[in-house]
From TrEMBL:
Record key words, sorted: Cell membrane, Membrane, Transmembrane, Transmembrane helix
Name recorded for this polypeptide: Na(+)/H(+) antiporter subunit C1
Topology within the bilayer: Multi-pass membrane protein
Transmembrane segments: 26-49, 75-98
Organism: Usitatibacter palustris
Entry superkingdom: Bacteria
Gene this protein is translated from: mnhC1
UniProt KW Transmembrane helix keyword: yes
Keyword Cell membrane: yes
Gene Ontology, cellular component aspect: plasma membrane
């Protein structure tokens, strides 16, 4: 399971970096979103719920404080998801405004001459 999660984090981050290096603005925005998803998943995995254990209290209702999941990474990831959505929406609005002004979605505002 840990290998699959590690591969998923690597694929998300690698794809995001590849898209950030592309010349089109929309691809850069999607790349930034993928990198943020990879980082969020990495932070969430740091507070990983152990396999087969209840996250907070077991069915018997007897809390064992040594088996509690760490809620701090979950709270950080939840906050990062909300901020990521807002940032992506803002970047899309800026993309549409820049495309309206320059008639291109190239990152430097100029199409290559062919």
């Amino acid at each position: 399971m840990e290998l699959i999660v590690a591969l998923l984090i690597g694929v998300l981050t690698g794809s995001g970096v590849w898209l950030v290096l592309r010349p089109r603005t929309f691809q850069v925005i999607i790349g930034l979103a993928l990198i943020s998803y990879g980082v969020n998943l990495f932070i969430f995995v740091m507070g990983w719920v152990r396999n087969g254990l209840p996250p907070i209290v077991d069915a018997a209702g007897t809390p064992d404080f040594s088996r509690f999941a760490d809620p701090l990474p979950q709270a950080l990831v939840l906050t990062a998801i909300v901020i990521g959505f807002a940032t992506t929406a803002l970047l899309l609005v800026v993309l549409l405004a820049a495309r309206g002004l320059t008639d291109t979605d190239h990152v430097d505002g100029q199409e290559r001459e062919e």
